[in-house]
Amino acid sequence: MLITGITGQDGGYLAERLLADGDEVVGTVRRADGALAAAGLGHLEGRVELLEADLLDGGSIRRAVVDAGAEEIYHLAAPTFVPDSWRDPTEVTTAVAVGTATVLAAAGELRGDVRVLVASSSEIFGDAGVSPQAEDAPKRPRSPYGVAKLAAHGLVGTLRAHHGRFLVSAITFNHESPRRPERFLPRKVTAGVAAIAAGREQTLTLGDQAAVRDWSHARDIVDGMVLALRHDEPGDYVLASGIPHTVGDLVDAAFAAAGVERIVTGPDGVPRDRVVVDPRFVRPPEQWPPVGDPSRAIETLGWRPQVTFDDLVAEMVAADLERLGVERA
Ligand SMILES: C[C@H]1O[C@H](OP(=O)(O)OP(=O)(O)OC[C@H]2O[C@@H](n3cnc4c(=O)[nH]c(N)nc43)[C@H](O)[C@@H]2O)[C@@H](O)[C@@H](O)C1=O
């Protein structure tokens, strides 16, 4: 099995899952030297084969697909931080849309029966006009990232219909874990709350707390990907919990999990919120919150997310407390 982007959050969980199933795993990384250890995946050293490939270098992607010769390809490699896509729409379009076209074409040339899953995103829905969103909801992305992911999603459907190939688009909503980098909201919150619990920080600086997201555990999402790629028929699947939470809910859950008070009384006797809003982190609000309707995945694939929102936040907080050597009271 080939995983592009094996050192990303999802790539690591997927590799663990496939290895546990007894599969051979090949993964792409931009530079192989020390890549697994740097991603906190040192335990995979010697258990997976690494190939170097860069999404911005089509030749390297084509070579990796051909060299791996895998029956299943999970194309996960992509830039993932949405705000970055405003800074460089060319790069995100090349990496996500052209990168996906390259993987799909190379896989098709290699062998007709190869199965390919492409990681798409709830960002393809944007101003959908409905929420929650199922697979057939209108797709009106609001960011260059969403536009690029929609192109990739469209390529999967078009090539599947035209060539009858086994191609799957996994429309993943937000998914997190202790391995998530800290610039994404949930890890920023759990790391920040842990730092407050450790006495290293006094406050946590965020953007809009009213924003709504549909958060799942990354391990559940990659399990859904495997089910989708191993099903009898190819198709597109929304992978999401279906349960909306605000950023504020997540913040409160993290403080509760750490056993730290969010509101504290200052020396002047005035209550103070430890969460401070910085306009730099505020994004324009969504009219149609990205909340998924995972009915198709549940009914067709028998997929069931295992980890609840509270358990996800608690696991992330516990990992961040442990990293800082804080004993939970
Ligand atoms: C499905 C989709 O999921 C992810 O994209 P995202 O939703 O942009 O993820 P995030 O964790 O950066 O933001 C979540 C929400 O939280 C709000 N928010 C408030 N205050 C801060 C803040 O201080 N930092 C951040 N990062 N967000 C903040 C922010 O405005 C937004 O409403 C990626 O995996 C992406 O690749 C993907 O495909």
From TrEMBL:
Pfam families with a match to the protein in the record: GDP_Man_Dehyd (PF16363)
Keywords, in A-Z order: Lyase
InterPro entries: GDP_Man_deHydtase, NAD(P)-bd_dom, NAD(P)-bd_dom_sf
Enzymatic class: lyase
UniProt EC number: 4.2.1.47
GO BP: 'de novo' GDP-L-fucose biosynthetic process
Domain NAD(P)-binding: 2-316
Essential cofactor(s): NADP(+)
Catalytic reaction annotation: GDP-alpha-D-mannose = GDP-4-dehydro-alpha-D-rhamnose + H2O
Keyword Lyase included in the entry's annotation: yes
Alphabetized GO MF terms: GDP-mannose 4,6-dehydratase activity
Protein's job: Catalyzes the conversion of GDP-D-mannose to GDP-4-dehydro-6-deoxy-D-mannose.
Family: Belongs to the NAD(P)-dependent epimerase/dehydratase family. GDP-mannose 4,6-dehydratase subfamily.
Name of this protein: GDP-mannose 4,6-dehydratase
Organism: Patulibacter medicamentivorans
